[in-house]
Amino acid sequence: MSRQPASRARPKGRPTRKKKPSIVDRILARIPLSHVALRRIATWAVVLIALGGVYVAGAVTGVNASVGNALAEQIGKAGFRVEQIEVRGVKRMDVTTVYAVALDQKSRAMPLVDLNLVRDRLLQYGWVQDAHVSRRLPDTLLIRIVERTPAAVWQDRGTLSLIDRDGVYLEPVSANAMPDLPLVIGPGADRQEPAYQTLMVAAPALKPKVRAATWVGNRRWDLLFDSGETLSLPEGEDEAAKALKLFAEKDGTDKLLGNGYIKFDLRDPTRMVVRKPDPATRAPSPKPTATGKPETTKSDRAPTRDTV
């Protein structure tokens, strides 16, 4: 009886040889993105290339751009469509206005959203000094707003408005909720706000003491101080700055403000005319008349004037 060779049993526990990952797999493993994100990026790259090819072909052959628009709409249906608006930098502006501008599009497909148009529309609002609009794939528009800074309150014909240092209108202001900002008064005073800011640089110590500044006759400034005095400045930016600096120096040495004066006139920069109230201008006590009504009298004496 012949013996047949027994089949050799496979050794137990011997590991199977694993297939080495390809170079592409190793590169992708090093990229700090999820497979889902990588798939979306790859899809976006492909559709952009395809869209670019369509537009190039249209430009060469004269094919209507509706083909490209149709492809862009398909991209939107694939998930690349504006579904969220992320707004940053808004502190005082109404954020719903930003949303309304961003969503006012013919199509919300990402390739068809006009970023420049959104920015241009936002720049039409007073609060917006600058705006940056970008896409964040797959479905978000990111809008960064740079707001203007309020610098003064402008009063004209009984209306109060908030303006920035360039005189740009921001929003109306209620008289019951006046912010702690300089008050500029008169027609055209808003356009003179940059000049007013420059003027106050000449005498920074006086700036916190100024309650209001009136633009007179579209030519010059009258300053009203917290202590109640008025300072009339001459015409011309340089002349007004020199006069204000001179007044600040005199106030520093002679303490003009809060010393009983009512007006300082420096419209002629070579001399300062000072006015102070005359006690004799007080109206006498009313005397009864035959009708029983008090008799009113008027004083024709003006406040005293001194030239310094």
Could you characterize the architecture of this molecule?
The protein is α/β, with parallel strands linked by helices and 308 residues long. It has three domains: 51 residues; 64 residues, Ubiquitin-like (UB roll), CATH 3.10.20.310; 158 residues, Cell division protein FtsQ/DivIB (Rossmann fold, 3-Layer(aba) Sandwich). It has seven helices and 15 strands. The strands form three sheets. The chain has a ten-stranded mixed beta sheet with strand order 6-5-4-7-8-9-10-11-12-15, with no helix packed on it. It has a three-stranded mixed beta sheet with strand order 1-3-2. Helix 2 packs antiparallel against helix 3. The N and C termini lie far apart (146 Å). About 6% of the residues have low confidence.
Secondary-structure class: alpha/beta
Could you say what the CATH architecture of the largest domain is?
Answer: 3-Layer(aba) Sandwich
Question: Distance between termini?
Answer: 146 Å
Summarize the helix and strand pattern as letters. HHHEHHEEEEEEHEEEHEEEEE
Q: Which CATH class of the largest domain is shown? A: Alpha Beta
Give the strand order of the largest sheet, numbering strands 1, 2, ... along the chain: 6-5-4-7-8-9-10-11-12-15
Stretches where pLDDT is under 50 for at least 5 consecutive residues are: 285-303
Structure summary, number of beta strands? 15
Overall average residue pLDDT:
79
Q: What's the CATH topology name of the largest domain?
A: Rossmann fold
How many distinct helices?
A: 7
Q: What is the helical fraction, as a range of percent?
A: 25-40%
**Count of structural domains:** 3
Q: CATH H-level name of the largest domain... which superfamily?
A: Cell division protein FtsQ/DivIB
**Proportion of beta-strand residues:** 15-25%
Cα radius of gyration in angstroms: 38 Å
Question: So what's the overall shape?
Answer: elongated
How would a crystallographer describe the biggest sheet?
10 strands, mixed
